[in-house]
Amino acid sequence: MSALDKGRSGDNERSGDNQPAGVALAGDYWRPEGRPDPLSEKGRIGIGAPLSRVDGAEKVTGGARFAGEFIFDGMVYAALVYSAIANGRILAIDRREAEAMDGVVLVMTHENAPRLNTPPVFLRSPNGAAGDDHPIMQTDRVHWNGQPVALVLAETQEQADAAAESIRVDYAAEPAMIDFELAKAQARQPDNVLGGPAEITVGDADAAFEAAVHRIDATYTTPRHNHNAIEPHALTLAWVNESEGEGETLRIHDASQCVDLAVASLAEVFGIDAAQIHITSPFVGGGFGGKTLWQHQILAAAAAKLADRPVRLALSRKGVYRVVGGRACTEQRMALGADENGRLQALIHSGVAAMTRHNNLPEPFFQATKCLYAADHIRLSIDVADMHMLANTFMRAPGESVSTFALESALDELADQLSMDPLELRARNEPERDPTSGLAFSSRHLLEAARSGAERFGWSERSATPGRRREGEWQIGLGCATATYPYMRMPGAAARITLTPDGATVGIAAHEMGMGTATVQTQVAAARLGLPVEKVAFHYGDSRLTGSVLAGGSQQTAAIGGAVIAAQRALVAELLALVGQDSPLSGLAPDEIECRNEGLGAIGDGSRFESYRQILARAGRSELSVEADAAGSEELANWSMHSFGTIFCEAGVNGVTGEVRIRRLLGSFDCGRILNPKTATSQFRGGMIMGLGLALMEETLFDPRSGRVMNPSLADYHVPVQMDVPEIEVMWTDIPDPHTPMGAHGIGEIGITGVGAAVANAVYNACGKRVRDLPITLDKLL
Amino acid sequence: MRAFDYHQVADSEQAIEQAVRRRQAKYLGGGTNLVDLMRETVERPQTLIDVTRLSRDIDETAEGGLIIGAAATNAALAGDARIRSRYPLLSRAILSGASAQIRNMATVGGNLLQRTRCAYFYDVATRCNKREPGAGCDALEGFHRYHAILGTSSSCIATHPSDMAVALAALDARIHLRGPEGERQLAVTELHREPGERSDLEAELQPEELIVAVELPPLPMAVRSEYRKVRDRASYAFALVSVASMVELDGETIQNVRLALGGVGTRPWRAWRAEAALRGQPATEATFAAAVDAELAAARPLPGNAFKVELARRLMIAALSQRLSDARNGGDA
Amino acid sequence: MQWTINGQVREAEVDFRTSLLDLLREQFQLSGTKKGCNQGACGACTVLVDGERINACLALAVQYQGREITTVEGLAERGTLHPVQAAFIEHDGFQCGYCTPGQLCSAVGMAGEFERGLPSAVTQDLAAADLEWSRDELRERMSGNLCRCGAYNGIADAIAASLGKEVVR
């Protein structure tokens, strides 16, 4: 059975009779009284079709060229030297041996690096793409163990590596806060969490908890994680003179999930105009939050300037761990107070996450708890423990991935205490409105997803008592957990549509890192413009395209969708201005028009139609190009907007060895309209597999004596391999959200959420052991 | 990686001649461990002598065993029909290690001499007695989940990472060596040293000595031998604990037994004490437990690897019980 | 030095330190073969040498002189995708595409190993002459190729389909 059959949407049977003829201009879907985007209606041509990836052929033939695979004439290779202390000063750098080695072109340290401005920091400055605000190779200060302290350029990578290895650095180490246990004692409340308060209260949760009949009060811990995209960060760049007298342009082939923000940040760093920087990133070998701006891009550009040579810098796997931040560790207290019927009276979720004083990303582990359950009294708070470490950053479903482990484990513990089915407990606490903001939900069908998932999974076969099912050495249990991730549409998106007699090109500075963006947005644009997908090209991954769309926060689908909606309106208006009096469309207003059959037609009047080709020909135009900004994301102020799902897991625990094997895994999601079931299935499964990693094996080992990551490799940081992964079923409600473009939600992150708890709950059901400390390794089950 | 000279040789004689002539020479097999360590600058040879053209044949011996050329790949060994039927634990051990790609590259000789995966050994910015005698050991109070509980010293707790070598230890394989002084043989259980104060000295090899072959003695009981490996993911990970086992019964008495452990020893760990406690004893759970306890009494666990004592205990008992049941169902195996 | 790469004899003088992977990527601009870890831990660099899959990152180029090397660029024949390539597209056996060339070469190598009767760690009876395909056999044999996007199900489906095997799930 294919994944498509598993999507129980029924939407793939498009009947010709009911099929709307064309796509009118989307209106004000973001307003309470607004009309939904016409593309969110069921039965739209192309939407919901399992189109194979448009870049598939390039990816399977080796033709897809990634950032570290471009070539400039005269290019040299870079290698970095990383600090071996966590805090202190560089006393001396012995570079003589390196400089004398064959092929070495440059050794750059803080002593000779060009003057650079400190980069603007992500989520602290509007232009910020950088991980932290440390000066980059400007002083003798060392701020974390692994900080780049020297860079070598040489004619070959082998020469550069050998020269970097020969460099000896003397340090004066200073006391460093590198033990999370100690740092916790000095934890502080951050200024903000994702721009909102670091503490949220509804009623008096502590008093309500004390008074509750049923109580769970437990601490859950989650370790550091690294993204570990299989493509290590790499770039190839040159300072080039694109045309006479224009000055130099910094031309970068980067692996980036934020080309536009990176340009803005680099412009500040180098004190040049953003127009002088051009980043392209057509293929990105996985991002997961890690492929933003870190020191290596800045150092490569600085060294290229200093040496006056194009540079290729490809971080080693170890280098990625040294210079690209990961997910912070957390310690979360979950206190649930419930009445005899399982209704939550108190919900307390507090704790601390590691951070630095130089970034602004407290791991937002209360996000899911804000919206999931109705509780009379709620207290949520996040503290941060400042450490001398590489700045942490966001990794797939920041907050939710680790917070759902705590919240959804605690609910399972409460269900156990109440002798109640865990799904029933959740259903009893399903809120009418967002319990902390008070807003109505734009679209919430969690219970439906849970019900259909439970039925398909065979949840009713679960024994409420742990340890009842055994096969040989294996104890088998079932667990479930709620998944959730916010809907997001960030400001800044814009799109350009260029129409020619042969079709349309849609361009936007967005990203394809494997999510299926290029494929899905081709489908969406084709549907919106009434064109076959073969006649639409979607251009992305280029900072010179319009708009600024971060591939993050699961927001790209909606952000691009919103921009194309705006561009479609502009295009129709321009076309109507071109048609002239002889056209059957003459006199029609944009809102009376729909795009259909490769042209424009009057809504409800099949006789009034003119093809794009005819309109352009009549006007003597070979092409028409329009650009428009997406409407502001007012919907986010009007509703509480989230995706939901329920994860079901069947785990085997080996009674002899404690090994855990995931036998079955099912995700039933409520994420609005699913645009392409083939790529969506992969997104959900991919998130869920990363969730299995989080549940069972992933942990970045940060040595509390040195502040050094001690498993900076794919051999020692375990991610799931093929053998760890069962056949994963995914299904979805496919109910459109009336207040989003295409009725869709982004789906890149929700898959990882809930999986940690679903596994932990299944393990408990299998063997009666409750593990509250990730990952669930076998030693915790012996 | 620092620059080096490279010489490919056609036979062991040439290999040794080159090794004697060059300074800081290393023999290079499949490179799966040495090249990696050279990138980390843990290994810094000036010369590599490529010995992959040495014999990779697997031949019958006059005694009814097999002799394996040291350049045979791990994959070739694991896939050999004679090994699979007569020494299945060896096939299983090899197939449980690394990935198919690595097994296609790695040689038998190289596998035996692969070095520990200790994170502190790999990271030249940390202290490691194995890399630098006398420097200290950062693993003792650091991350040592993968480290040894048997055969350790106050200077080193690194495990030998090979699965194959554990199976070879259980089989009493013999190592054929060739050096400037000529040829000699060594029991595989005598090849690897315990660290003591000199954890940098890992194998009982003379300078320039080269492993040219591994000999498997005839061992009928090995037909029902197994290798079970426990690790942190389902495949492609080093052992936390592994057990190689075979048992021969005489009625209900254990006539002969072989047990070896991986993941817990500073060298491939032949469980001599347990074997001695089992031989000639009735095949009962109580005997197994006593034998296993005898072996693990010497364990020196640390906070991060204390679970291995219990895990090793359970795995050994489970292996013995399984072998017992296999032996009782003798003819069917 | 000389190698036969995708059927063509190629020559270059390289540093002894140069890996087969860097030879392909940097000397011959065959960048289809990917560098994911450069230490034999991810399989992104998998190529076929005389039909057998290896990790090109741990292979010194100098050691492989004279050998027949097949990379992802050599899988398609005269513009027609290899069945496993087509199956990867159809079954969505990838997302970002970075591990894909290694997965593809590995799958081709694996099929050969299976045809030759080589067992795997999950083969129940190692002494048996005939192997039986199963989903577990496929998964174990492909476990040397990491995919962080998590396309494992699609990869397994694609390989099974391209081999024409009814693989039990």
UniProtKB/TrEMBL annotation, chain A:
An example molecular function term from Gene Ontology annotations: iron ion binding
Spans annotated as Disordered: 1-47
Domain Aldehyde oxidase/xanthine dehydrogenase a/b hammerhead, first and last residues per copy: 61-175
InterPro entries attached to this UniProt entry: Ald_Oxase/Xan_DH_a/b, Ald_Oxase/Xan_DH_a/b_sf, Ald_Oxase/xanthine_DH-like, AldOxase/xan_DH_MoCoBD1, AldOxase/xan_DH_MoCoBD2, AldOxase/xan_DH_Mopterin-bd_sf
A Pfam cross-reference name: MoCoBD_1
SMART domains attached to this UniProt entry: Ald_Xan_dh_C (SM01008)
Stretches with biased composition (Basic and acidic residues): 1-16, 30-44
Gene3D superfamilies xref list: Aldehyde oxidase/xanthine dehydrogenase, a/b hammerhead (3.90.1170.50), Aldehyde oxidase/xanthine dehydrogenase, molybdopterin binding domain (3.30.365.10)
Annotated TM spans: none
Family label: Belongs to the xanthine dehydrogenase family.
Protein name per UniProt: Xanthine dehydrogenase family protein molybdopterin-binding subunit
Organism in which the protein naturally occurs: Salinicola corii
TrEMBL record, chain B:
4Fe-4S among keywords: no
Pfam entry (one): CO_deh_flav_C
SUPFAM superfamilies for this protein: CO dehydrogenase flavoprotein C-terminal domain-like, FAD-binding/transporter-associated domain-like
Cell inner membrane in keyword set: no
GO molecular function, one term: FAD binding
Domain FAD-binding PCMH-type: 1-221
Highest taxon, organism lineage: Bacteria
Keywords: FAD, Flavoprotein
PANTHER family: OXIDOREDUCTASE, XANTHINE DEHYDROGENASE SUBUNIT C-RELATED
Protein name (record): Xanthine dehydrogenase family protein subunit M
Automatic annotation (TrEMBL), chain C:
Presence of the UniProt keyword Transit peptide in the record: no
Residues spanning the membrane: none
A Pfam family assignment: Fer2_2
Domain 2Fe-2S ferredoxin-type: from-to ranges: 1-75
GO molecular function: 2 iron, 2 sulfur cluster binding; metal ion binding; oxidoreductase activity, acting on the aldehyde or oxo group of donors
InterPro entries: 2Fe-2S-bd, 2Fe-2S-bd_dom_sf, 2Fe-2S_ferredoxin-like_sf, 2Fe-2S_ferredoxin-type, 2Fe2S_fd_BS, Aldehyde_Oxdr_Iron-Sulfur, Beta-grasp_dom_sf
Keyword terms, alphabetized: 2Fe-2S, Iron, Iron-sulfur, Metal-binding, Oxidoreductase
Lipoprotein recorded as keyword: no
Name by which UniProt lists this protein: 2Fe-2S iron-sulfur cluster binding domain-containing protein
Classification lineage: Bacteria, Pseudomonadati, Pseudomonadota, Gammaproteobacteria, Oceanospirillales
